[in-house]
Design goal:
Elements lengths: L12 H16 L2 H9 L1 H12 L5 H9 L8 H25 L5 E4 L10 E10 L2 E12 L2 E9 L2 E2 H16 L1 H10 L3
Antiparallel strand pairs: 1-2, 2-3, 3-4, 4-5
Helix pairs in contact: 1-3, 3-5, 4-5, 4-6, 5-7, 6-7
Length: about 190
Amino acid sequence: MVLEANDDDKLMPYQMITVSIDSMTERLGDETNKKRLGKNKAELYQIIDETLSPYFQKKYAGRLVLNNYWKDASESQRERFTEGLYQSLIRSYALTMLNFDVSKIKVISGNISLEDLKKLTIKSEVDYKGEVIPMNFSFAKFKQGWLFYDVRIEGVSYIKNYRNQFNAEISANGLESVILRLESLKD
């Protein structure tokens, strides 16, 4: 596949997903390598981070997850929460990708003019043991260009899922407690 860049010499959303999937497919390798990576979590997380982070808008995702708590959080709390959330996402996504044949993710392209859009969804499907599962990526146009901020697998948004989880925990224990818990998670 030949990729074409826009005027800013940046990849467009469809291309970002395709490049990320191709890179992940190559780096995760075959089942033998996936088993090895399952035992070497640090390397697995690094692969997922390196294939996702160039295209992911962490701060916006953190803001959406914190929702009403964002405005009352200090800048330090926002940064720490955002990084903790991202690391949690990496761990979760990494383990999911070990169970999928990443090469079987099909990105559904469309002829969409991005000129006047500020947000869009790139749809994809993954064949998981004969069942086709929708996996959609939500993108927005930021100062640095198009980046994704949410993934929906089988219609379940990771943003909404984490928001519900963290809202209850923040209400009960406070934001700082949630941040400390996220920072303490290690595999």
